[in-house]
Design brief:
Low-confidence stretches: none
Number of strands: 6
Structural class: alpha/beta
Largest sheet: 6 strands, parallel
Mean pLDDT: 94
Strand order of the largest sheet: 3-2-1-4-5-6
Number of helices: 9
Strand content: 5-15%
């Protein structure tokens, strides 16, 4: 029997943007850039976005261009009281219980952060694996090698995965590897297999869509 997997993004996917956590984290990234590189705030904001666009993550840009130790970055950026932003989500837990097949998290956050977030949401026992930014030597999404390493670790082909992410750019390599792509959000992208405005629409969308068994 084929082994199928759901791959879920973490940030703005398993919890919504409205929590404010991502906006707060982005401010900490900008503060880190300003302090570490001696930049004005506006320049730090622009550099964060430029590195994210070019490398997928700000950290990768810092490693490539400044030789930064990722542990220093993690220690500052992710030193956050997550309890200010996240609470247990019984509805999310119930949804994950109803969805078929094992589940994994594939995120550009570090593994320790993923573990903390899942625990606060009350869904840490719903996922068999987590793949954080350090898993593929900090390549992260959307670098294709990160996706290939995840598939190898799971022992499956791309055709055996349904990937759920809020970023179209992160779904491009997934599509190229044969995964069923699910875009979360309001953006219209014609090439994805499914688009849902809410994670809680995923179950109904999958039932109404022909997904290989």
């Amino acid at each position: 029997m084929r082994r199928r997997y759901f791959l879920f993004d973490l940030d703005n996917t398993l919890y919504p943007e409205e929590t404010g956590l991502i906006a707060y984290r982005d401010r900490r990234i900008e503060e880190f850039l300003a302090r570490t590189l001696g930049l004005e705030r506006a320049t730090a904001v622009a550099l964060r976005e430029a590195y994210r666009q070019k490398y997928g993550t700000t950290l990768r840009g810092l490693m490539e261009n400044h030789g930064l130790d990722p542990r220093v970055y993690f220690a500052y950026v992710y030193n956050v009281d997550l309890g200010r932003f996240l609470r247990p989500d019984p509805a999310l837990a119930a949804l994950l219980d109803r969805l078929p097949w094992p589940k994994a998290v594939f995120s550009n956050s570090p593994s320790e952060q993923i573990t903390r977030v899942l625990a606060l949401l009350g869904v840490d026992d719903r996922f068999e694996r987590i793949f954080g930014l350090e898993f593929a030597d900090y390549l992260g999404k959307p670098h294709p090698e990160a996706y290939r390493r995840v598939l190898t670790a799971l022992g499956i082909a791309g055709e055996d995965c349904i990937m759920v992410d809020d970023s179209p750019a992160n779904l491009i390599p997934a599509r190229e590897l044969g995964m069923t792509t699910v875009l979360l959000g309001q953006e219209e992208v014609p090439w994805v297999d499914l688009r849902v405005e809410s994670l809680f629409a995923l179950e109904e969308a999958l039932l109404g869509k022909s997904v290989p068994a």
